[in-house]
Amino acid sequence: MAASGSKFLLVVFDGLRRELITPERMPNLHRFRCQGVDCPASRSAMPSETRVQVSSFVSGCYAGGHGIMGNSFYDPALGFDGPMDTSNLEKMQIAEKRYPDGVFAAPDLGGLLHQAGLNLVTASTGKIGNARLLNYHAAARQQVAYSIHGPEVSSPAADHAAIEAKFGPVPETDLPHVAVADYLSTLILEHFIPRHDPDVLIAWYSEPDMSYHYRGIGSTEANAAMAGVDQAFGRLLDWWEAEGKAAGWQIIAASDHAHITVTGSFNLATEMQAAGFKVGNAIGPDVDIAVTAGYTGTVFVRNRQTSLIDDVLAWMQDQPHLGMLLARDCHGAATGAFDLSAIGITGPRAPDIFYLGRTTDTIDVHGLNGTCLNGNDGLPIGGSTHGGLHPKELNNFLSLGGDRFQPAASFDGACGVVDVAPTILDGLGLAVPHTMHGRSLLAALAKDQADQSEKIWELGRGQYLQELSITTVAGGHAYINGGRRLQ
Fold first, then answer.
1. What pLDDT sits at residue 289?
2. Looking at residue 377, what is its pLDDT?
3. b/e per residue, 109-121, with b = 16+ CB within 10 A?
4. Are 133 and 54 in contact (CB under 8 A)?
5. Domain-by-domain residue ranges, the chain?
6. Which residue, 287, 111, 301, is CA-closest to 200?
7. Hey, how many other C-beta atoms are within 10 angstroms of the C-beta on 316?
8. pTM, two decimal places
9. What number of other Cβ atoms are within 10 A of residue 74's Cβ?
10. Strand pairing of 249-254 and 7-13?
11. Could you give the angle at the alpha carbon of 163 between the alpha carbons of 159 and 165, nearest 5°?
């Protein structure tokens, strides 16, 4: 155990909207939130996609620090024929060799704990990239990284075959994926904690994200998904209250991001081709502009030509279905685009343009604020998505409990996913490296939250106008409140 006598259990509920944590839907999580420190102003990193948040949770960095620019992201330096899905193990291995600093470019919890002689266990029901990025170098560190997707995704130390021999195969379920959540809780309580004695354990439940996406935030399946993961968490909570708390365990419960409802779709690449741009999945002989499609998407221009970037920006600003526009090297009053560095997307992997489908504060069919237009056809109308800057999708759930935290309290200060790793390190008595963009909430809870300021910028060109809100606290730590296209 760490010199501090503390251990940490981080439990993540993928995609969960914090206002849906009610006594009726999620009684266990609601009880935990009421007993510990609730953080209603917590914010995701950008883009607010799952594998960016995974990387931010364990590195304390925004995307420019850890280098994971999206669930899938295109980088012409890799030489691929399109975006690299971070769940594609073959392409990730190639990228690991081609990137001078590796795919995961920042110190992470796995490495920092390993250096300190402490033990990290990760266990995930999420997708392949999710499980791998929780501890990207787990195999080399001989740490336990377990995924329901099998031994080729899990680390050797997890001994996936032995787990299935003892506990049976991973359950096969359709939406909602609640059986695998219960299975994971069994493994945590009956295998990972007693056998591996971790100092830090990260448990990742893939729901309600999947049910939100494909059935809608307020659907029957989504409600069942929330109830199912709440019951799985309830088992962990029962253990914690019976024995874990006395053994020094602290619990951090969180979602990585939230969702807003999809009300329409568009095809940006097709529209750009019709406008005369040479567009494709990757820059090549007949392609000057590589577009990665989505509700949030990216644009790379051959050789980062500023004149062509500006032409694309000007065309985008005339499209009523597009929302916010941010750029790497072609931004400011002259172009009407915000600087990507304002939302933590920096470095050589950053795109030339980052765009979002247009969002609104319309109340959806489930009575929830937030809708958007989606830039691909992979999700149904009435389903939901995330990745952008709408305040509702950025407002992730975060609550902390244990003897290191004040009971039944609310921390109204700015905070976010980048604060989780610094908080864990501080709680274990370890130094927080300067690479981390976040701060320890153990220290922040004791400070006057008046020492923070929110700034709202407006920027536009012609008839196009957008705004971006960021809160900065003492020490220069910045948190993204949200943004929108105004006209």
1. 98
2. 78
3. bbbbbbebebbbb
4. yes
5. 7-68+104-259+386-444, 262-385+454-485
6. 111
7. 20
8. 0.97
9. 25
10. parallel
11. 115
